[in-house]
């Protein structure tokens, strides 16, 4: 039998090649020449195998008909691509695949006979509902999109885990309803859409085997090992692991990046003031191969002169391909001796530098010679920015670890850049159809001008903490009252102990709330207090009613003990929605002036990126005026968002303020589309400067003060060139005449950022009481003229 990955499913699966056979029949009947003769030849060859058209459910039949199936599918599996493509025949979610390309077969052979190819993080619940959604879309015209990226993890012959994106082509599959397939009403459809979590309901509505899934699909794999490793690295570095755990996770990630099984990670911190290395970092001892058990050491003792000059003075990587040979040639080198004594045969020492300050040295070591060298050391460039940022964060704020969250947006292609993807897809189809080996080119837009802006909700974290404290304090006080009532029914000593603990929680909350305070309280209550309250035997009726009322109040959706948190979340949602609607509406207008790439993010506020340039719209004549018009538009729309928020604020549960910022960057840059993440990233080492400024600038301060550059009710414009100041002064003048911006304009310097200095700022006051009716109806084109 053809066994699906999950036995319980609404489909009866029949493997069939009827669609491609019908295509050959059409060619044989209507075409002429070689194409028709080839089609007739194939039809003649498969004529003794009616099951290929009618469908079959036997896995053994696949093996018996393997050769004729291969001939039938030769057009889809061209021999010239067999060593390039990772492709096979399958059915979606079926735990069987065959007719592999040579490259696919070699990958599976390397994984071993015991390896089963399964989809990562895909369980029965997701599978069943995904199958049902396919049926609903096919037979009832719904638009239920349950698709998500599918991945498989396959080890290679050396045991290194490689990661592949799975792509399915279902052009040769059809769904047929059997007589047992139920007829659904609109009421049934509505009920299903509102009950994703009720798997029993879906199984009852879509009984097993009531539909036939007939045909075959093409499964293609794309190697995303490096991208997956970098993504995992980001997650590890942005997490809250302590240093040893972080080193372990980084070790496995770098194995994928360098394709080396024998690899270990170490870190040696650097004390800038004393000029000494230390193996103590993050408040605890970490593995340091340079120090080899020593707590600290002078730099010139730990490094030889060559490595000292390259790492400390030049800030470059230092690679040793063969430690034994290096030590032989440098007998006085403490570094070579230290590594040799630990059995290390090759190594890379990478300086971790931020703001031109050495924070420490990342150590990659192997017990095999030549695994690391000066050439592959540069693979670290893809990871070092994240390592530098993470180590700096952990070093400077160890007591208040921040679990950074990266929200990835899987978006469709923006209309302004869709044309280039269409062109490349057409090239690929034309070349491969002609039997030409063609690799899709990366999509890059060069020489585009970036515009970045944000309207950020001020003190959102502080407000959330206050709402959590208020809710938790009320909940704990209610529990204190209940425990005093329970005291007469159980051990007085036990109750007093719990009362002291609860009072301790209340006192801790009055001082400050930590990252884990809420979870600590919840765990304590679930472990010790709730079992006591639910032990109602012997409690009075009044007490039982009060306990029941308490448990009603802890409901996160309706309970009073979550009222402030719900109000806070509602506030954030209302502000974000209002700001996003304004931005999206105005974007439709701005695209008419000159097409440009646009993306918007909702976090604690609204951020946006815009890229404009000749390469995005090559059929149009891009000129400086197009950039200027978009810059004026950006300034005006941020002012509009700030004014709209001012009027909205008075109706919010929490009257939160917003701060606004615009980053001016006049040098053109390049952006590259990342296929795995489906969005554009800044491309090129120089352009990283722009990303650094963008990520750090809103937390910066006015040079020489503790004052934040962003303030409520004001727009801060960050720039670095005199020409930029003059340009934006003109825009400000225009908006002042419209009464949108106040007359006072502040001008100041910004504190230095990571490797960036000399930034300046203009800070404008928004006229928050501006007439909303005029604001909502004005025209940007007239404003520009």
TrEMBL record:
- SUPFAM superfamilies this protein is in? GAF domain-like
Q: Which InterPro entries match?
A: GAF, GAF-like_dom_sf
The UniProt entry, under Pfam families, shows: GAF (PF01590)
- GAF domain residues are 300-373
> What protein does this entry describe?
GAF domain-containing protein
Species: Mucilaginibacter myungsuensis
Q: What is the lineage of its organism?
A: Bacteria, Pseudomonadati, Bacteroidota, Sphingobacteriia, Sphingobacteriales
